[in-house]
Prior knowledge:
Layout: H1 8-13, H2 45-48
Amino acid sequence: MHDGRFLSFLAQLFGRPQNERPDVLFPVGFPADDARVPDLRRKSLEEIALFDPLTPSTS
């Protein structure tokens, strides 16, 4: 867990006032054609979730 101080360079980079503090950085867009990006795949629901048939449903 972090307290956001490591993002403080963004306020200076973008010329923001000292009383503003970035909390989250969301990278958006697509990598450049010559970028080296890891070949990641999205995990299936079965790989990340466990459904217990013995637990009663709340719906």
